[in-house]
Amino acid sequence: MKxxxxxxxxxxxxxxxxxxxxxxxxxxxxxxxxxxxxQIATNVNICELDNEKMVEFILKEKINFVVxxxxxxxxNGMVDAIEKVGVPCFGPSKEAAKIESSKIFAKxxxxxxxxxxxxxxxxxxxxxxxxxxxxxxxxxxxxxxDGLALGKGVTVAQNFEQASEAAYNILEKNKFGQNNKKxxxxxxLEGIEASVLCFCDGNxxxxxxxxxxxxxxxxxxxxxxxxxxxAVAPNPAYTEEIAKICENKIYRKTIExxxxxxxxxxxxxxxxxxxxxxxxxxxxxxxxxxxxETQAILPLLKTDLFSIMMAIxxxxxxxxxxxxxxxxxxxxxxxxxxxxEEYEKGFEITFKSQNEDAHIYSNxxxxxxxxxxxxxxxxxxxxxxxxxxKESIEKAYKAAENIQFSNMYYxxxxxxxxxxxxxx
Length: 424
What we know:
This protein is of the alpha+beta class. It contains 13 helices and 24 strands. The chain has helices at residues 10-20, 51-61, 71-75, 78-84, 98-101, 103-112, 126-135, 160-171, 240-260, 293-297, 305-313, 389-401, 416-423, and strands at residues 2-7, 27-32, 42-43, 65-68, 89-90, 120-123, 141-145, 154-157, 183-187, 192-201, 205-213, 216-218, 222-225, 230-233, 266-276, 279-286, 328-336, 350-351, 358-362, 365-368, 371-374, 378-386, 403-404, 408-409. Strands 10, 11, 14, 15, 16, 17, 19, 22 and 24 form a 9-stranded antiparallel beta sheet that branches. It has a 5-stranded parallel beta sheet with strand order 3-2-1-4-5, with helices on both faces. Strands 6-9-7-8 form a 4-stranded antiparallel beta sheet, sandwiched between helices. A hairpin with a 2-residue loop joins strand 15 and strand 16 (279-286). Helix 7 (126-135) runs antiparallel to helix 8 (160-171).
């Protein structure tokens, strides 16, 4: 079969690497792809938001199956456009993608179906939001843009000044565009964060290995939020007991709630959890594979990924046995200094030596004259598996030392919190 992966990040490179192993795939394409995907697939220069051109290419090349992974194309209805011409896709419809593209949609879904989450209020008027923040609210508090904001639409405000600035940026300054005319002011949840990605076919939901993401730019979880600076899998705080609670109170309820709304969810559902003292609560839903969680999970997947995706498309997920290695994986993001704000790009990436144990995924790179060049804020993701978490962390950092490019930056404490949980 001829398969197309839509997207250009490290997640897409990791998915392409996993699909490349399948004997069922004869040719693999990525649109638009990056310098890493170009080394294992055929890159196609089509913008991931251009439904019309993507459909034209799919029909012209007689593509048999499409994997749509980024949030914006899903929210933009790319799956609907492709399936309308008879080509099957992995990914949710535009309506089902609202579980991520509208935080208000997600909150209403949880409220109506008794799915545990933080208390919240919705505002579209800046003055009313300020009044609430002054009189009613407790700090710290969480301010969220309703729509997609490249992973940067959430502010954990420690005081009124920070909260009012976040509300002003979204409602008055229009920082995140026309799709963000409303905000949520949420109760701040305390606990340990966990990310759980789940395969779904609209009826059945099967969780993958749990993850611990590291969203902040600086060590010690300081500084602004990013798309993610690293992840470890599995998350030691996510015990079997917690998994069972989530299965009954969150995962199944979510899939049933989406069916009830006549927006059944098919694809990968990312569930961001806060493991609080009174039990797990949902922080957010994403309608796709996470980044860099995908780069920490897929190296551990034993089952053929394409077979899973086909089972989901055929609504036969419950029939397939999904297996993972009984190991640990650490993914470490190598970024351009200055990210998530301003940064330079266009630097050559060099490798002192090839580390066969490490999976090197391209997030923001291009290939020029057979040389890998930096082309984004998050440049590479180094993922290493091992029998223990400690060993996988050590291997990832050792592999990172073999990579060089100007202004390279990475956190030095990925996995530290997870190790502390294991030690206690």
